[in-house]
Model the fold of this input.
Amino acid sequence: MRKVMKSTSILILAASTGLVACGGVAAQGRSNVKSVSAGGRVSSGVGSTALSAAAIENQMFNAYKTATSYFDKGTVRQVLISDKIESSTANFTTAYKTADLFRLGFHEDASTTSDFKGLDVIIWQNGSDIKDWFKTNGPAKESADLSLLSALTKNGGVTHMVSSLVPELLLGLTNDDDHPGFPLRKLANLVRLPDAKTNGISCYRIQGTDHLVWPAATVAVDGYDREAGAADSTYTLWIDSTRDALLSIDEDTKSFKANGDLDYTALSTISYAPVINGLVTDDQLAYNKPPSN
Done:
């Protein structure tokens, strides 16, 4: 059984491992818009001061809302500190074409120390046919889902929010009690940070907060039990200042149990190499689950 809410944001605290840089995890493997490659971040001071944080955010929303196709390759680097320390690296791809063709593939490296090392996830839609495939230490599990929203939600924790964040922008998803974990469209306290570069690409940087409270629930359609709790998160978005494409998300999250006790503290960085309105092939959209072992 997959538990979503040991991570409405199970994302990383890297301070103890020396991975923290620029407010998030160090930009090892940081992606640019052409390839997933190593790179660094360089502050360039405030750029075009005419644009507010809200205006930059709206430009990004519009770029994804109006996209007729999308493809990315990305990396998640994480350390999670609760009653133990877990670290992991995962790679993913996202393919989208119009409103009913979608595929997300996620693979966590087998060398990591998390409970989900070697994890593979596929979330796929072709019209009304929606499937979700999941494999970790045991046998693979495949299920047909009633909605893409359900498939994305129940895999939010194990994919370190990869199944939530960019799909939220492409599909216009929002939170509700049964489907929490889509924060980007409701960030509060938006501020603009100094512009900076990642892999030589000039980026706007905006930061906002999200407070999420969720009830205890057994959600039959999604197939998981959820304990009550809450989370306070700060998101820093790195947005290509030329294409309004999201290149990176740094997250700082504190998650609390129902009694108010701290459950875990986490920081994370998700890096994207996005192509918006480019060619998305049939192979990139194909279900293509691995053969049974």
In short: The chain has one domain: 15-285.
